[in-house]
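Aim 2 progress update. The chain analyzed this quarter is reproduced below.
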Amino acid sequence: VIVFDLFFKDIGSQEENAAFAEAMRVAGNVILFEKLTTTGSQTYPVRSSIRIPPTAQLAQAATGLASHPLPTSSLRVNQFWLFDPNNPHWATLPVLALQLHARDLFGELLELLREVVPNEAAMLPQRPQDIHGPDGIQHLVKALRTIFTSHPNLGATLLGRLPIPHSEPEAENTRLLASLIRAYSAEDSQFIDFYGPPRTVFTVPYFCVLTSCSSQRLGRPSSFDFSGKVVFVGLSETVQSEQQDRFPTVFTSKDGLDLSGVEIAATAFANLLERHHVTPLPLYLHLSVLLVWGILVGTAGFLMSTTRLQHRSGLLIASLAGLGLWLGMVYFGVIVWVFITQALWFPLVIPLLVQLPLGLFAALFSTYRDVNRQRLITEKALADYVPAPVIKPLARRIEEIQSQGQAVHGLCLLTDAEGYTKVSEALEEHPDQLQALMNRYFEALCAPVRKQGGMVSDITGDAVLAIWPAGMLTPELRKTVCETALDLLAAVARFNKSEPGYSLPTRVGLSGGPMFTGDVGAGEYFSYIPLGDIVNTASRIENLNKQLGTRLLASQLVVKDLSGILTRKVGIFQLIGKTRPVVIYELLCRETEADAMCQEAIHFFSHGLEFFHARRWDQAEESFRTCIHHRGEDGPSHFYLSLCSHYRSHPPSPDWQGTVILTTK
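Predicted structure tokens:
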């Protein structure tokens, strides 16, 4: 099929016209462009009512005549007409080309129509030979279009009756027939699914076809094979200043190069043939998307505004802005993906530029309204008990207190000084000296914590509680806390050396897990402290140092799979007040600081612990004594030697798994 998107209005040479007309008559597959007059404003895509055919000699020789109405102003082309709206059911170039391309399947289409609408089918030409003259195919298309519009469900019925193909040629014919049925069932216009910028549709210069010139620069062999194809002929320039038949599209280049009318016509035909065009959502689905999106935005904004950020306006605004950006990106990404893969056109402007900002603004407004209402209630409740000038600041402070705090994961470090009672008694007559001494001691403890990003949460008596809140207990964070504990003990050692008469040896316990951090208290007294089992566990682990004769112990969660820190497992303990056993490790030093004797001692202690769990008391005692021999003194080994002696005379229960149950602090 050859489609000329050119208007032949000049008579020209009689010999050339006669030769051209004869060639078209013999070929029997040529469609010529006919012009439409326009009336009224040219900004509307189609205002035509009068058809102007090409010269009579050429028009009579053509197989069909059709127009291709497109905007003639600066409007961007997004749609094409399948049927002329001012000449009901009159096909445009793309539809007429599709009908002529599928002319060999007219018998199959007619047979399907006879099965479903036999009366209307009888009114159609029964053979292709019955279609005469350039308007004959247009009258056939008009008759078919009338049948399909009179029976809205006819297209779906015919598609359901298409035979199952058994070979590739049959499959190709079935696809072509389905494309033709869908075209007759479609609306008068469709959105164009452009394939790309100008010349995306394969274009061959006319002179190359006439002279069979080489076309290697076009990516094709030297000879062109157009058999079985539909060829559109028209003006297609590559320089903007030379373009005559041009239309702005979404692919108009920065230098102003537009798509030509012939390439738009070819694109529209390809959309029909491939049954792939941009489809806006039906009205009910369009409204459903807007409704669901509005509910989603409103719910997300409401949930964000009801968090503890509601009392922190800056964070709330930033969070809502981030939420809006994230929701907008997700929605935009989804509709772009659907547009590319399914050619479905979802609503874009209203959801992103109207619903999203309005929904988030409504959530923000609702939050401020609720906060002000709570503040007024608080002020009213305090009015009878607090002086008027204090009410507003106190009400605002209560809201801040209620808003602070969060449930997180974290690591907890707890210290306790050995010999504090003795030191305080020695300085009983000089409390100012005790204060100065303890300030220097606490500075030695807190400096490593601050250096490594920890937070000193509480100092009570001679004990320090430090925490590292975090979203996840990463290996990097756990190693940082372990190194902090080692540095802390080193700082205490230096402090004790500088205060020979007032030594404060320190024990440290490390634990990790979920906790709540925030202001805790009542009335006018609040403290920012961590709450959770890890604080109690850290305290019990720190106390275990007394029985094991160690200085730095940690739960398995803290030291698991850490590198660079020399540790040893000292056993499984059911700590005081705990119902579940905890695996405890001792932190000895950095691996770079360990000597061979220390490594050897750890090796023997590990074997002794294995023998102990296996109830092999003699081998366990031998390993622990060897460990003491290598280290000179080892508290955990002495602890287990005592247990081995006890269990030898008082064996544990048969279901014992090696857990040491502690009964005293």
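DSSP finds 22 helices and 23 strands in the chain. Residues 44-48 have pLDDT under 50 and may be disordered. These observations will guide the mutagenesis experiments scheduled for the next reporting period.
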